[in-house]
Design a protein that fits this description.
By secondary structure, the chain is mostly beta strands. 2% of the residues lie in helices and 41% in strands.
């Protein structure tokens, strides 16, 4: 989207677009002193290991959106795009759509749900970015075979990376998440064992004429430990059913097949075990 109010209409011009922020300061910031000191650990610090539980967003590419610049997230590097043909932009200050590039890619669709984040089941479409350049973050128009169906959000996507678009939630699905947590101390070792049970109840409300099953991809996370004093174990014997896969980030995944009017309950159980010298859990 391009707009201008220079007082002169741009008619049939060759347009080059850049994400460089010419109004930003060009001088490097003043560096402040950052003094580091070393000291011996106290006797109490030698006896204990303090750990913290933290939330971490899983992201492959791109920084956080730049505040104040809607739709301009260039991944931290200046991007230059060229309009393929002459364009016209009147000097009326209104936004005008300028085509930059187009590409076609094979799409993969799934009905996805992450109950810890949202109780909604959303149709997500993925495809490879074959434009030859980075796709900038911003709003997108969503179009099906029947026409325009709404607006969504596109994240910054590098060339060749996967483009992910959400086409809205399904009103005929419902997910209820229940959690239960117990804490115990194991006998002689005095290890603290934290057991968490997560139950996910999936329901599908179907019209009378629906006959086909629908696969819903459900994702639930398991903590990941970064210190040897804390161990995380998935209790596959207590899971019902066991996840189809668990990736390196601790994301457990089920491919749940729901018939019309079907109901399923998923149970995930994991243990966090820590030695007696660990504090903070």
């Amino acid at each position: 989207m391009v707009w201008q109010r220079t007082g002169e209409d741009w008619s049939g011009v060759r347009l080059t677009l850049s994400t460089a922020r010419s109004s930003a300061a060009t001088e490097p910031p003043v560096l402040g002193e950052d003094r580091l000191t070393l000291r011996d650990r106290s006797a109490e610090e030698r006896r204990t290991v303090h750990v913290d539980l933290r939330e971490e967003e899983i992201a492959d590419l791109g920084p956080a959106p730049v505040l104040g610049l809607p739709g301009v997230d260039d991944g931290g590097e200046v991007r230059v795009l060229h309009a393929p043909g002459p364009v016209s932009v009147p000097a009326d200050g209104r936004a005008h759509r300028v085509p930059v590039s187009s590409f076609t890619t094979a799409a993969r669709s799934e009905y996805a749900c992450a109950p810890e984040l949202s109780p909604l089941v959303t149709q997500v479409v993925r495809g490879d970015n074959r434009s030859g350049h980075a796709l900038l973050a911003g709003p997108v128009d969503l179009i099906r075979g029947s026409g325009f169906v709404g607006r969504g959000t596109l994240e910054f996507t590098a060339p060749g990376a996967v483009v992910e678009l959400a086409f809205g939630s399904r009103d005929d699905h419902r997910v209820v998440r229940e959690t239960e947590e117990t804490r115990d101390t194991a006998g002689l070792t005095q290890r603290t064992v934290l057991t968490r049970t997560v139950r996910l109840h999936l329901s599908r409300f179907s019209a009378p004429d629906e006959r086909d099953d629908r696969v819903v991809v459900v994702r639930e996370r398991v903590p990941v430990s970064e210190v040897s004093a804390v161990e995380v174990r998935l209790r596959e014997d207590a899971c019902s059913p066991a996840p189809d896969s668990v990736d390196a980030d601790g994301i457990a995944r089920w491919d749940v097949r729901l018939p019309p009017g079907g109901h399923r309950t998923l149970t995930l159980v994991h243990e966090v075990s820590a030695s007696s010298k660990v504090t903070g859990l």
